Predict the structure.
Amino acid sequence: MTTGLMLERDLTVRVGPVELPARAAGDVRIRPEWAGLCGSDLHVFSTGAWVDYWPAVLGHEVVGTVSASDDPAVPVGTRVVADSRYGCGDCADCARSARFCANLTWLGETRPGGYATELDVPAGTVYPVPAGLDLDVAVLAEPLAVVLRALDGVTTRPDRVLVLGCGPIGALIVTELQHRFPAAAVAVSEPQPARAEAATRLGATVVAAPAPDAYDLVIDAAGFPGAVAAAFAAVRRGGTVLVVAIGDHPIPFTAQQLVEKGVTLMGGIGFDDEDLPRALAALAERPQRYAGLVTHRVDLTAFPEFLATMPGLNTGKVIVRCQA
């Protein structure tokens, strides 16, 4: 019997038996070893947003081992990362990338996800983990894929970069910036002490009050109310503001201000098909650089208590151990 963390309609969570549907043709069954906790998971836990079945088993950052497969390309025993995107596959936006699909859904929200001892996913949505890469590092592949795709939009080499926020995504951004632009001076604005210390360990300079008009590139990885306005104030004329965090606040500057400052404003969303393999290759090349970003490893059975008492914004990356 599969065991999973279930979110009920009343937003309570519990660990117990999960009745998986019969494995569909073309699906493989995975025994998750680790599943990452994403900010979007926390949003669903607190609101129930996006879920269309109950009780829901969340978890879309999943790495594990194939335990049943009818696909010779994905044999039993293969260590894999699952692609969590489910686009409609029919619209013009999907023809460009599933990340642009207006009907895009995610693993855990429309079908049982990775906070469980087993799950089923289409065979075509898994990617092999490079030999020698520990699975508790490979579980970072999806958030790193998001970061890689977002930074691909930066086409001009910056000399000075400011990152707003050093949570899990912000820390991955700092790490990737230093790899791509080793000569750039990377600063981080982060009020939470533990996260500020993490930024310092990564080699960034922590600034309490970013100077105005000072940075070639400013990246919003925080999403707090006013974050994009703060990024716009900090970027120099002709610079770039890249928004990666998902915030629901309005952007309080005018089109005239945007035009007169000559700033490029970009939004980074999701990842493309090639980005998970790219992320896995980067993790395999520099595993020690990324391993330190994980601050909490939580057993599946202890996950409800952790969610109820988690130390909020002072956490780094949290990953859940799915097998006892």
The domain at 145-267 is CATH 3.40.50.720 (Rossmann fold). The two ends are 14 Å apart (CA to CA).
